[in-house]
Amino acid sequence: MKRVGILTSGGDCQGLNAAIRGVAKALYTADGETEIYGIRNGYSGLINGDYTKMKKSDFSGILTVGGTILGTSRQPFKLMRVIDDNVDKVENMKENYAKMQLDCLVILGGNGTHKTANLLSSEGLNVVTLPKTIDNDVWGTEMTFGFHSAVDIATQVIDNIHTTATSHGRVFIVEVMGHKVGWLTLYAGIAGGADIILLPEIPYNIDAVAKEIDKRESEGKNFSILAVAEGALSQEEAKMKKKELKAVRASMPYPSVSYKLAKELGDKTGHEIRVTVPGHFQRGGSPCAYDRVLCTRLGTAAAELIKNEKYGYMVALQNQRIVPVPLADVAGKLKKVPIDSDIVMSARDLGISFGV
Ligand code: F6P
Description:
Blueprint: E1 3-8, H1 16-30, E2 35-39, H2 43-48, E3 51-53, H3 89-99, E4 104-109, H4 111-122, E5 127-131, H5 147-168, E6 171-176, H6 183-191, E7 196-198, H7 206-218, E8 224-229, H8 235-238, H9 242-250, H10 257-269, E9 273-276, H11 289-307, E10 313-318, E11 321-326, H12 327-330, H13 342-350
Parallel strand pairs: 1-2, 1-4, 4-5, 5-10, 6-8, 6-9, 7-8
Antiparallel strand pairs: 2-3, 10-11
Helix pairs in contact: 1-11, 5-6, 7-10
Bound molecules: 6-O-phosphono-beta-D-fructofuranose.
């Protein structure tokens, strides 16, 4: 009989419950005596001893439900070693793990979460993780769950904007989430037929973007749609040091990069430019079919590692197979869009501009 703790950490996304269900059902199927402890609100629940013994029935009926039944929170990795109000977070987590008499801890999370998961593993806890995030930026896996559901939503936003853009002959900017990487914008931009795609990985030249809009107009196309990653940056900004860029962005009189672009492109092209920001809408709702299958495969693979007492790994998708990847290899790395990848090439071949 095994005692397993489970928590979800970082921003929520579609598929968290489907993945929790995958782990739990496979564990119960293998051993009906398994005990699962749900830890509330991410690492915060492990730090503060906020957990509960789950029932088998808790994992039924959640495949299609968005969000996470366990709750989640962001606990920055850089503060994990900092003692706040006499609370030693790492020691507390180790103590609560021992108090629950866990054989292992299952952690569902993105990049920051994996740094802490690796820390806990190096501190001697038995850890297995699953990669979640709409950003798809976790190193070591070709796909994170949540990503495809968010792509579907962002694509639908671009689809719907098309009708207004064509009717009014307007230029539209759709700002897509994705943090510091452009996976979500690239996929949604291609799927939604965007004319210009701006990614953090390919810093844009504002004159090249304006030229592309003018070119389309001279070809008789009275509208343009730009899919812009929230982390997109200009070539000038790309040359700045992290601190300088942060200061420049903080002093910017716009809520986000898209509004800055709208002003600059409006001035340069004389077009009426509108901005649409779907924001957290992209993380909500039911997981798409692809994510439900991926979550189920990752969840059952995590249960298999636990059965075999193979700890210190993230389950990942590589070459269509689910494989274990050492946590030490994953932690601290960011999976960016390779600018020479075939998907970027394919977009270029189609005539999509990346603003350079
Ligand atoms: O990591 C997922 C994500 O949605 C990013 O795309 C976005 O930058 C960030 O989280 C938003 O964070 P929060 O939900 O804390 O506002």
